[in-house]
């Protein structure tokens, strides 16, 4: 039976995903068979992988996919057994072990998830039986005491697996010592006994200035701070949610090809543009106002979990008209999945996949395609060719697209400099990205250098850099000692009252 560790947080976006990813690679370097795990992920950023039992295509959170890459393990549904994909503020579509499993209303979030907990615990137990170490990532804060009775992703999971737990706090936001002490204090005695230490994330400055606070925190809680990770401007990986969009790196230079990515309210799989962010002659910006399209060479309409609602939003903001004007004025446009469907003639939802049965909308009319939502979700890992080069990607959608007179492009359509594809992730392929950039640059009268960046190599380099940071600033040997000792905290100072 393998061992496990829970990386929890004081808040959302404290850095749990980044720390978990770094730990996965660091432990893998030491010869351990490592698997990532997140019992429940709430994100519209997902990835297609293969179920090792059935051989069927399956869907998991993108963060767990990249953590599996970091662990040098094959991604599989057990690593993220429950994925909630918000379709509105009060309703989420549920994916269990990689396959659609209905929906969850806001009122059911507290008490209506027993079956999801059972699936999550079974998946964790399965992974632990096959790997040396399962590095688990929590969700949000572990001190959400209003949800504790039905929790299975934070301390509920830790109790199930008797997992030593480390708590990550973001010092860049301020108040990290209070949040760490308060987080521990709000837990009940049994939960507190599983918390083994703290990790401070995103620190800037002289770490020596923290010494009094680190000492006081240990005296007050009986738990050590196992590491202080520095704040790094260029540290970013495949993110879980759109909170990270504004911190993406941007290349600014004279003559750069300017790409405007529309920030849809229910944007999904925005990692589709990650590779463009690394190109030296490409400037990427995220926009939600038609005036921000001024000066853009290319407009990208990304994927969305609510195509009809986001199309209505696009029109209400004036962005729909602005995108059409941009295209008719000679600018390039790329629509991906739901964004591609918006560029077509019509979208119909006869089965109420996104809301009311029979709903429909007229598209922007830039491509000769018609979309109809089907009941069954399409999950695929397609390969093929486009623009004279090999291409690959992944598909996650209910929409079935019927193409008219336009030419084919990656399972979608093309008319001049307007492109639409159902394939997420296609721009991660270096050859396809270079060919597409040359096409759109020529269409708008610009030149771009291509072939200077390898996205897969850059991803590996960033994972290794993250692991280097973990090795340097986090006490990995202490983590390994925790894994070897499953006893509770009797050797420390006990619990807080």
TrEMBL record:
Pfam family, one: GATase_3
Protein name listed in UniProt: Cobyric acid synthase
Gene: cobQ
Annotated function: Catalyzes amidations at positions B, D, E, and G on adenosylcobyrinic A,C-diamide. NH(2) groups are provided by glutamine, and one molecule of ATP is hydrogenolyzed for each amidation.
Species lineage: Bacteria, Bacillati, Actinomycetota, Actinomycetes, Mycobacteriales
Keyword field contains Membrane: no
Domain CobQ/CobB/MinD/ParA nucleotide binding, chain residue ranges per copy: 6-235
Active-site positions on this chain: 337 (nucleophile), 424
Domain of life: Bacteria
Family in the record: Belongs to the CobB/CobQ family. CobQ subfamily.
Source organism (scientific name): Rhodococcus chondri
Biological pathway: Cofactor biosynthesis; adenosylcobalamin biosynthesis
Annotated signal sequence range: none
Keywords: Cobalamin biosynthesis, Glutamine amidotransferase
UniProt domain CobB/CobQ-like glutamine amidotransferase: residue ranges: 258-428
Entry-linked CDD domains: CobQ_N, GATase1_CobQ
HAMAP family referenced in this protein's UniProt entry, alphabetically: CobQ (MF_00028)
């Amino acid at each position: 039976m393998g061992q496990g560790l829970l990386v929890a947080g004081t808040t959302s976006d404290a850095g749990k995903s980044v720390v978990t990813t770094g730990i996965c690679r660091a432990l893998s370097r030491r010869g351990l068979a490592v698997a990532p795990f997140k019992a429940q992920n709430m994100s519209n950023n997902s990835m297609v992988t293969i179920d090792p039992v059935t051989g069927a295509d399956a869907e998991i959170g993108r963060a767990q996919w990249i953590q599996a890459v970091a662990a040098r393990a094959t991604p599989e549904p057990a690593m993220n057994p429950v994925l909630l994909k918000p379709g509105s503020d009060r309703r989420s579509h549920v994916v269990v072990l990689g396959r659609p499993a209905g929906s969850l209303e806001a009122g059911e979030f507290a008490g209506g998830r027993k079956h999801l907990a059972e699936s999550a615990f079974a998946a964790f137990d399965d992974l632990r039986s096959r790997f040396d170490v399962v590095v688990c990532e929590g969700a949000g804060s572990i001190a959400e005491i209003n949800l504790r009775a039905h929790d299975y992703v934070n301390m509920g999971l830790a109790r199930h697996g008797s997992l030593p737990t480390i708590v990550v706090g973001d010092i860049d936001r301020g108040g990290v010592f209070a949040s760490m002490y308060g987080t521990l204090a709000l837990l009940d005695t049994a939960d507190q006994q599983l918390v083994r230490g703290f990790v401070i994330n995103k620190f800037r400055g002289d770490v020596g200035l923290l010494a009094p606070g680190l000492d006081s925190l240990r005296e007050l809680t009986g738990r050590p701070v196992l590491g202080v990770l520095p704040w790094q401007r260029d540290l970013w990986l495949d993110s879980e949610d759109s909170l990270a969009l504004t911190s993406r790196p941007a290349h600014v230079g004279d003559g750069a090809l300017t790409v405007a990515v529309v920030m849809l309210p229910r944007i999904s799989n925005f990692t589709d543009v990650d590779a463009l962010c690394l190109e030296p002659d490409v400037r990427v910006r995220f926009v939600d106002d038609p005036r921000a399209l001024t000066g853009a060479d290319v407009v990208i309409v990304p994927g969305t979990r609510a195509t009809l609602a986001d199309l209505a939003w696009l029109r209400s903001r004036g962005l729909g008209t602005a995108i059409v004007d941009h295209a008719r004025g000679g600018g390039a446009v790329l629509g991906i999945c739901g964004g591609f469907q918006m560029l077509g003639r019509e979208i119909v939802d006869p089965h109420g996949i996104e809301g009311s049965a029979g709903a429909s909308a007229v598209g922007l009319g830039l491509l000769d395609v018609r979309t109809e939502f089907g009941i069954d979700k399409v999950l695929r890992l397609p390969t093929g060719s486009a623009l004279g080069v090999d291409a690959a990607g992944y598909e996650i959608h209910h929409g079935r697209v019927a193409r008219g007179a336009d030419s084919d492009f990656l399972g979608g359509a093309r008319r001049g400099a307007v492109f639409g594809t159902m394939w997420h992730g296609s721009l991660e392929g270096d050859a396809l990205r270079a060919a597409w950039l040359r096409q759109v640059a020529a269409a708008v009268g610009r030149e771009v250098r291509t072939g200077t960046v390898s996205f897969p190599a850059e991803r590996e380099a960033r994972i290794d850099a993250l692991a280097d940071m973990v090795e340097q600033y986090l006490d990995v040997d202490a983590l390994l000692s925790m894994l070897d000792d499953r006893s509770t905290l009797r050797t420390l100072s006990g619990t807080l009252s």
